[in-house]
């Protein structure tokens, strides 16, 4: 756009094009030169010795040296000029956004509209004053190119501006320093200024990136909205909801409220391009300038309606910015805002024996720039503890151990980030909780309760962790760390069923040599190490290190070929992935991981599966209610007159995978009759089946696995064909089927979901539930459930108990989140000994063992 540098080809032209008229002289010049050179050369007769000794040699050298020196000087000069004009003088564009306060000015409504004469008049004066300030500073003034006043807000009057500078490269550091320290002029200087009636203070300028600057400069998509007293105002992206937002858009919504008010903004619908797939995003600023220092949030992707997207300003303005690129057009957003009185107090004195308190506007996002202090006092003879039930204080780029921006502080210790339920206790009857939020980036905050407790018995009938947390006495010395820091596993006498780790902990004997460091100091795995230079297979066998990743199954269980860094075509084995061209690769789980591993790319074909289209809030760590759209392949199978009976997984528009035992004949009811069943896709709440996001289908056919054994539950799998295809939506998506070679390693966290009973012999859940459980190694699975486990089964659970699938979850998915955030159907809920009992994990049908049957039967 701007012509700061000469186009390089202009220079080239000078080099390659001789000056006009020089052509004819070229030859004669050369001749003249030759003559000139020969001038000092005298060819003498050989007998004239005197003349031979004539000192004409040195003279020639002087001449040559002079010529050389001159050409050296000339090239130095040329070099200097090139450097000076091309590099030293090369300029870079520097863009700034900022704001300043006008002292003693009265705000009039017309200032909110940039096309009014009042706006133009004040903007002219402010701009002039700003340029005067720039000109006063020799490190700024001469580089200024353009400034524009973009908005005013109330209080008294705040002006928002952008400025454009062109700074020589070698001056950039000095310039940036000067801009960072820019200040409003002293009062005395104002009278000498161009607009003495304009007095400004609190002048700030922030470097801006060109893309955001484009949004400020192009006002084809700018909106100014003022909150109305007691009324909710809404606005949407252009075209919402009937057409997608425009591509390459730079839209700004300047939201204002009356002085001494703040703004509450809520996105009621939000659906822009997924963050990982494109560059579209929305940013909200606690200012009318799009400056990073006042950014509250950056949003992309889509959020389900239950996600709380409420933001509160610190002053009476907010700016919403939408930036989109050329592709990936989505519906956009609908937002609402209203004004509220400022200075709502936060913190305070809390008394009594228990109570709750939260960050301001919880579960909405807390405002920027606030400090709250809660002084909590329980009766004198008691102590007090705080339990944080929800805790979300995440700042982009700030690790949870540094807490330099937003934090909670108790007893001089700072807490931030995303945390599970935790407890902080005091050894007195008082405690002080402080909360601080800085000027940028906000989060949901916390929800906490304070509780008084008896200092001599803080956990009646239970074990007290040093953190103050109470755990069941049976959890003491059971091999699992239940207290933060593992206090419940210290100073234990190990039973005969346990081993003693070197660090003193007791662990179940069957964890010895299972390839997992259960002790924490690896002492349970030491006596079973292979000799040096050997590799230990998953089945315990030792093989030579050199045999690892050599394309042969030396372990016998494929574990030596399962996790090789490079993708090598190897002879096909059980554990290798077979490409469509029948060549096999040794990479573990290469399907749909976003990388081409097969030479024919077939590992990345057929990958329209296993993707969540909503942003996952799941930040819910303690709670187990699923979010809307979090498990879009989850299906609820209803039987006429009985309601929900089993779960299932959607694998294509027409096919479901479920458990074969759901169709057992019981009480003379022939459950394998397709007419009995109805499948609900996109369902979240069993009481809300008429929701427009739900698609209901009758069943055309039920196909049980031909090897299903009704007695052992071996091959507990069945396919259901829907009467007509479903259409995929955000709430309805298919899950990926794992390849026959797909491995779900021991210890891997996997999710089980369903509307099953929430406790053994309990009743089913109304809203879809989720639980994170872990893959348990097959030999331990055999030990825990002797004579029950076949290779088509896998144990998945938490051996301490408490988390499990239960009655009514049968047939539902066991979802494994793999690389690229792709979800695979690892298992089908099959059976178990009760629910959530200690050492009794759930048993799941291992889907990779029946993938071929599923694909052959359904064509998926
Ligand atoms: C059932 O009856 C059932 N604890 C499913 C899973 C489990 C137990 C029972 C696993 O559907």
Automatic annotation (TrEMBL):
Pfam families hit by this protein: CUB, Ldl_recept_a, SEA, Trypsin
Membrane topology: Single-pass type II membrane protein
Name listed for the protein in its UniProt record: matriptase
Keyword set, alphabetical order: Disulfide bond, Hydrolase, Membrane, Protease, Serine protease, Signal-anchor, Transmembrane, Transmembrane helix
All residue ranges annotated as the SEA domain in the record: 92-210
Record-level GO BP terms: keratinocyte differentiation; neural tube closure; proteolysis
Species for this entry: Anolis carolinensis
Subcellular locations according to the entry: Membrane
Active site: 661 (charge relay system), 716 (charge relay system), 810 (charge relay system)
């Amino acid at each position: 756009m701007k012509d700061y540098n000469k186009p390089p080809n202009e220079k080239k032209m000078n080099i390659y094009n001789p000056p006009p008229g020089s052509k004819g002289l070229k030859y004669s010049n050369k001749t003249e030169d030759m003559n000139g050179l020969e001038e000092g050369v005298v060819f003498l007769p050989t007998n004239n010795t005197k003349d031979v000794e004539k000192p004409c040699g040195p003279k020639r050298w002087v001449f040559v040296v002079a010529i050389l020196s001159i050409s050296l000087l000339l090239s130095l000069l040329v070099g200097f000029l090139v450097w000076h004009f091309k590099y030293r003088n090369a300029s870079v564009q520097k863009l700034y956004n900022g704001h300043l306060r006008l002292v003693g000015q009265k705000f009039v409504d017309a200032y909110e509209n940039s096309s009014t004469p009042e706006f133009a008049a004040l903007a002219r004066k402010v701009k002039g004053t700003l340029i005067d300030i720039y000109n006063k500073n020799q490190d700024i003034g001469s580089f200024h190119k353009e400034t524009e006043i973009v908005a005013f807000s109330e209080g008294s009057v705040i002006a928002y501006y952008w400025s454009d500078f062109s700074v020589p490269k070698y001056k950039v550091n000095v310039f940036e320093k000067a801009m960072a320290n820019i200040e409003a002029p002293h009062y005395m200087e104002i009278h000498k200024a161009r607009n003495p009636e304009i007095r400004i203070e609190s002048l700030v300028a922030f470097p801006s990136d060109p893309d955001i600057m484009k949004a400020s400069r192009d006002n084809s998509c700018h909106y100014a909205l003022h909150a109305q007293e007691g009324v909710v105002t809404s606005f949407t992206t252009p075209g919402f909801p009937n057409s997608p937002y425009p591509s390459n858009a730079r839209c700004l919504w300047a939201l204002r409220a009356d002085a001494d008010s703040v703004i509450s903004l809520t996105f009621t619908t939000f659906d822009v391009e997924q963050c990982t797939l494109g560059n579209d995003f929305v940013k909200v600023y606690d200012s009318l300038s799009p400056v990073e220092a006042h950014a509250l949030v950056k949003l992309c992707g889509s959020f389900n309606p239950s996600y709380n997207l409420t933001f509160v300003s610190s002053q009476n303005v907010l700016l919403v910015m939408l930036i989109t690129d050329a592709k990936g057009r989505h519906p956009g957003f609908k937002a609402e805002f209203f004004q509220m009185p400022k200075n709502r107090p936060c913190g305070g004195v809390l008394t009594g024996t228990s109570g709750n308190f939260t960050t301001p506007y919880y579960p909405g996002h807390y405002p920027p720039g606030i400090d709250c202090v809660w002084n909590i006092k329980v009766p004198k003879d008691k102590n007090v503890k705080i339990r944080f039930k929800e805790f979300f204080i995440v700042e982009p780029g700030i690790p949870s151990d540094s807490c330099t921006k937003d934090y909670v502080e108790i007893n001089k210790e700072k807490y931030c980030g995303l945390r599970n339920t935790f407890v902080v206790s005091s050894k007195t009857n008082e405690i002080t909780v402080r909360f601080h939020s800085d000027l940028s980036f906000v989060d949901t905050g916390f929800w906490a309760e304070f509780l008084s407790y008896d200092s001599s018995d803080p956990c009646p009938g239970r074990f007290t962790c040093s953190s103050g947390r109470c755990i069941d006495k049976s959890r003491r010395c059971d091999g699992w760390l239940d207290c933060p820091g593992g206090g419940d596993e210290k100073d234990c006498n190990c039973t005969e069923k346990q081993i003693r780790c070197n660090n003193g902990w007791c662990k179940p004997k069957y964890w010895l040599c299972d390839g997992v460091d259960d002790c924490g100091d690896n002492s349970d795995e030491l006596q079973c190490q292979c000799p040096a230079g050997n590799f230990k297979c998953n089945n315990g066998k030792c093989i030579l290190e050199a045999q690892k990743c050599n394309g042969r199954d030396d372990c016998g269980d494929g574990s030596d070929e399962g996790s090789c860094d490079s993708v090598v075509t190897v002879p096909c084995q059980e554990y290798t992935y077979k490409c469509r061209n029948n060549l096999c690769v040794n990479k573990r789980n290469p399907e749909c991981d976003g990388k081409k591993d097969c030479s024919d790319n077939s590992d990345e074909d057929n990958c329209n599966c296993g993707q969540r289209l909503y942003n996952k809030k799941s930040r819910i760590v303690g709670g187990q209610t699923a979010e809307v759209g979090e498990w879009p392949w989850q299906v609820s199978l209803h039987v006429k007159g009985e309601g929900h009976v089993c779960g299932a997984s959607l694998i294509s528009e027409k096919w479901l995978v479920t458990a074969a035992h759901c169709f057992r004949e019981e009480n003379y009811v022939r459950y394998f009759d397709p007419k009995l069943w109805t499948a609900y896709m996109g369902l979240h709440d069993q009481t809300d089946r008429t929701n427009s996001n739900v698609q209901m289908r009758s069943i055309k056919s039920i196909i049980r696995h031909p090897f299903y054994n009704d007695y052992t539950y071996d091959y507990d799998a069945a396919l259901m064909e829907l009467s007509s295809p479903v259409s995929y939506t955000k709430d309805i998506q298919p899950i990926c089927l794992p390849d026959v070679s797909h491995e779900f390693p021991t210890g891997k966290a996997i999710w089980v979901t369903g509307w099953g009973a929430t406790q053994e012999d309990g009743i089913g859940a109304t809203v879809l539930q989720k639980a994170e459980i872990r893959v348990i190694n097959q030999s331990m699975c055999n030990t825990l459930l002797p004579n029950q486990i076949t290779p088509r089964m896998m144990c998945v659970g938490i051996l301490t108990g408490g988390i499990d699938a239960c009655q009514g979850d049968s047939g539902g998915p066991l979802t494994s989140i793999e690389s690229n955030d792709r979800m695979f159907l690892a298992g089908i809920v099959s059976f178990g000994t009760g629910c959530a009992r200690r050492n009794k994990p759930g048993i799941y049908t291992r889907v990779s063992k029946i993938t071929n049957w599923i694909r052959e039967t359904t064509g998926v």
